[in-house]
Structures are given as C-alpha cells and as structure tokens.
Amino acid sequence: MKILVLNSGSSSIKFKLYRFPQESVIVSGEVEKIGEDNALLHINLENESINEELGKSDHQKALKAITTALITKDIIKNIDEISAVGHRVVHGGEHFRDAVVIDEEVKSKIEENIALAPLHNPANLKGIKVMENLIKNIPQVAVFDTAFHQTIEPLRYIYALPKDLYTQKRVRRYGFHGTSHDYLSKTAAKMCKIEIDKFNVITLHLGNGASICAVKNGKSYDTSMGMTPLEGLVMGSRSGDIDPAIIFYLMREGYSAEDIESMLNKKSGLKGLCSHNDMREIEELISSGDKDAKLAFDIFVDRIVKYIGAYAVSMSRVDAIVFSGGIGENSISVRKAVSDRLKPLGVTIDDTLNLCDDKNNRFIHSKSSKISLIRIKTDEELQIAKSTYRLTISNQS
To answer: How far is the CA of 290 from the CAs of 275, 282, 293, 297, in angstroms?
Structure first.
C-alpha cells in the first residue's frame, strides 16, 4: 500500500511516497519556484536524481507534474496505486487535537484558521483542494503542526492579557513543530524501552526555526513557541523571547509595524547577532576568534538551557533529552555546550559518543548520567504517513 505525503507551501511543494506497513520511502522530491517563470521538479530515487523544468507553474500544474512523473518514471503504474494522501497543515487552532480525515467541515476550519497562519494555511489548503481534483475518491488526511500541543493546560497556554483577547480574538499559545515533537518523543520512548504514557522527555527541534517541548507521560505539557513561531528560543533569523516594550520603543523611534515584524522574523536571532544564521558558519568563525559569533553561540545555548531547566522542574522527572533538527542532529558543539550546562540536573555527555558522525539515532550520554541524552533524526513526513495510515488504510483492514 502506498501513501503520498505532501507539504504544500506558497512557493514550493515537498513530497514523499511511502510503502506501508513497511514504512519505507519509495521516492521523494520537490517542486520549487512555484509562481515564477522557471519552476523545477526534483525527484530523488534510490540511485539517481531527476530534474525537470516546468516553466511557469501554479499549485495545480506543480501537483499534476508530481503525479504524472510518478507514473512516467515507472514509480507507480497508475494513480490508483496511491491509497491515501497525507497533508501537512500548519495551524489547526483549537479545532484539532489529532490528525483528521479531510471533509468539507475540515477544509472550512482550516480556512477559518488562515488568520492565525496567513503565510501557511492558504497554501496548505490549496494543496488539499488540488489533490482532491487530481486523485478523486481517495482519502486525504490533514496533520496539523499545532495538534500535538492541544494537550497543554490553560495555565501554560493562556497569556496574562485581557481575557477577551483569548475568547474573542483567539490569542493564546498554540505551539508549532508538533509533528516533529510527537515523532521524537515516541522514537525516544522506544529507544529507552519505556511505555510512551509513562515517559517524560524534553525534545529539542533545533534548526533555522527552533523550539523545545516538554512531553509528560507522552503528551505535550509545555512548549516554547507561542501564538506564532516567533516566541521562545533564539533561532536562525527570529529573535525568540524579547521584552515586548522594545516594539513600542522602536515605533516611537520611527520604525513601522511592518519594519519591526520583518526585523524580528528575518533579521534577528543568530543572523542579527553575528550576520550568519548557519551554525556551521558560526562555528567556523568561532574557531578563527570571531567574538560576535561566540556571543551568538553562547546566547543560543543559554536560552536552550533556561527552557530545559524550567521544564525539568515543572515536570519533576525527566527520563531523556532529545537533540534533533539540523543543528541538534549535526552540531557536536551545541550538544556538548548544552549538556555541560545541565550538570546540576545530573546530566553528563559521553564525548566519544557525541563525536560519532554517523546518521543513526543514538544515545550520547555517559553511564553516570541521570538523564538519557539522545540524538535523533526527526522525520515529520513519516509521522504524517503513520497518521494517514492509522486513520485510513489500517481502519479498513
């Protein structure tokens, strides 16, 4: 049985085709530069890569090109081989606590939440509607970035603002990267051989966008991102937590709301501190004695440590801490620096295990560590495929 997973963005569409129940990837790829005159289709097979020029493409043409290529490249014989389609949807608001089979009501709720994710939900919804026309009578599933965090209690998602901002304007913490944190917590539980409903873990999704999640007894307990992905950790170009009064000060100094929003999202974080948002480049600069890069690195680590400390106290017990995302999976220095700062929690890292640069999920703590340290390669697409399989194909057997 084959499941197609789609991540439909405003200017690109990423896809993976899975074989179930084996959970193996048959093919992956992407259409990029949607809306431009030179859209490109990339297909990654086991032993080769295929690139095709599509010319000027919208989502309809891009998705048609993907499904056509799956047939013409002999990946599938016909479109009926696809048993279900799973879609990444960024924002489900308070409507969705889990993945759902898509119907008219679901599409209506996704549209209703466009105000909360104006850059993402419209493209996600467009991908759903196009696929419904291209592949008729095949179940489609929406998997929401926010759904995993709907188990967080009001005391952790309500902001200390006038109550009607929540009740009337839906201002609250939603959290993001939920599909990744869900995958990481379940994978870590299996590695630690602890039942998920008895497992307490802090998961770090560290990339250009970065978030941290406290998972208690298998459920999201608290998370760093808020109403938007801007809150929380220092990120590649996002500021993370700041004094909100800075915004009003800057407005009085002549900055427009648009200038400030762009600054906080695209020109801050690591990039704002040292002009670079790639941790590999920052580590190279540090080795050459660049003080700005060193300060940026230290601020990045310090914010992570503060969140871990707060979550550890709040949950009372932590079985494991997971490093993931582009930085978490690949930066030996970040894992080392964070772990060394956590010694008051009884955490000790094994330097030899941390240095191992293979791509396998692995434990990196020493035998004396009171908390397991784990490096895991996150796989949001697989988690979407699993949810799609659970809600559609497995229910038919």
So the answer is: 12, 9, 5, 11
